[in-house]
Structures are given as structure tokens and as C-alpha cells.
Design a protein that fits this description.
Elements: E1 9-14, H1 22-33, E2 41-43, H2 63-72, H3 78-81, H4 84-95, E3 101-107, H5 109-117, E4 124-130, H6 137-140, E5 147-152, H7 157-166, E6 171-176, H8 193-213
Parallel strand pairs: 1-2, 1-3, 3-4, 4-5, 5-6
């Protein structure tokens, strides 16, 4: 957890398949501390129990990498992890009783979870997906909360556009055409001026969306 203890608004951060990378942890600090008028407690649970995917497997450019990544995904099917979310929120509120409102941000794999969660009855008041994996326009038809989608150039643009069209809620959907999948998390290149600028712009949009909807 990061952020000022006692803040009454919290954000659940659902990481990408590579787990606790510095770019993702830095992003949590940005969400928590960038605006003194809107402090957030940010929680990043370990969905993979200390067994994330190896970033060296991505992109899966040969058969060995494809095999390792495919086998690993047997434990990472998003529907398998959805039941963990209500438990996480209950535990967080137990130890942080000041929390009154929740938002959720998902990176890549986590973006798929956000999309699925938003189609159910949920405590979350707003969701953000960045570099969403497994984009399915059918998910968008069920979304019940304000949704922000920040896609990279590597997401399937037809699916992203149709997802956008199918959303019936308050939304912000944008494609960052100069950066790769994972630009706000593990694969974000903060040494590259464009990568750093788009990373920061993505978090600014996410923060503004949460400010407006939480």
C-alpha cells in the first residue's frame, strides 16, 4: 500500500503479468501523492503469489518463449482471479476504516480484470484500463461504471474502437500511438523521452478521470 493513511478514497492497482515492476510501483506513488487535494490510498496486491511471468518471455518471438508464456497463463486466466477482488477490498477496509470510495486501475492483464469487474455489481465507482489485454467489445456492453481506456499502438485498434462504441457509460478512450503495450507499467521506457512523456501523460489522464468520478 502507498499513499497517506486516513485518505477516504482508495485505488486498487491490478498489475500486469510481470508483477511488481518499478514503473508500476512509481505509478502507484503518482496516483497517491500527485494531488494534495485528492489523496488516495493505493493498494497493489500480489495476485500471482510471488510467481509473475518473466519479462524476457515477451514478446514471445520464438517457440520456447511462446511455450513458457502459454504454460504460465494456465495460472493467470482472469476469471480465476476475479473472486480475489472482493476479499482484497474487505481486508483493506478492515485495516483502513477511513476508506469510503474505491477506484480501480488495471495494467495489461489487469485491464482485462477491470473490464470484467466493471460489468458486475461492484464497489468501484470508476475504472481505468491501460494497455488492456484481451480486449473484447462484448465486455463493454456490460460496463456499469465510468471507464477510461488508454491503449497503446500494439492493441488491436478495431477492437478498441468497437469497445469504445459499445460503452454506455461516461468514458475516455484514447490510443497512444507512439508507445508499446505496457507503456505505463513494466514495459514503459522512462529513459526514452517519448516513453517518459507518454507515461506521465497517461497518469495525468488517469488521475483526472479518478478526480472527476470518485
Amino acid at each position: 500500500m502507498t499513499g497517506p493513511a486516513g485518505a477516504d478514497t482508495a485505488i486498487l492497482s491490478i498489475y500486469d503479468i510481470f508483477g511488481f515492476f518499478p514503473q508500476t510501483l512509481q505509478g502507484a506513488d503518482i496516483l497517491a501523492y500527485s494531488d494534495a487535494e485528492h489523496p488516495y490510498q493505493v493498494f497493489i496486491p500480489d495476485f500471482f503469489d510471488g510467481n509473475p511471468a518473466d519479462i524476457a518471455w515477451y514478446p514471445p518471438t520464438d517457440e520456447e518463449k511462446k511455450s513458457k508464456l502459454g504454460k504460465w497463463f494456465e495460472i493467470a486466466s482472469p476469471p480465476k482471479h476475479l473472486p480475489k477482488v472482493p476479499v482484497i477490498l474487505t481486508d483493506a477496509e478492515k485495516y483502513n476504516p477511513s476508506i469510503k470510495s474505491w477506484g480501480v486501475i488495471g495494467y495489461c492483464w489487469g485491464g482485462k480484470l477491470v473490464s470484467l469487474i466493471a460489468g458486475r455489481d461492484t464497489k468501484f465507482k470508476a475504472g481505468v484500463q491501460t494497455s488492456p489485454a484481451m480486449v473484447d467489445p462484448a465486455d463493454a456492453e456490460k460496463v456499469k461504471i465510468p471507464m477510461c481506456v488508454l491503449a497503446s499502438k500494439e492493441e488491436p485498434q478495431d477492437e478498441v474502437k468497437q469497445y469504445d462504441a459499445n460503452l454506455k457509460v461516461k468514458k475516455h478512450v484514447e490510443t497512444f500511438g507512439d508507445v508499446v503495450h505496457g507503456f505505463m507499467s513494466a514495459r514503459g521506457d522512462l529513459k526514452d523521452p517519448t516513453g517518459k512523456a507518454e507515461y506521465e501523460r497517461g497518469y495525468k489522464i488517469a488521475l483526472d478521470f479518478f478526480h472527476d468520478n470518485l
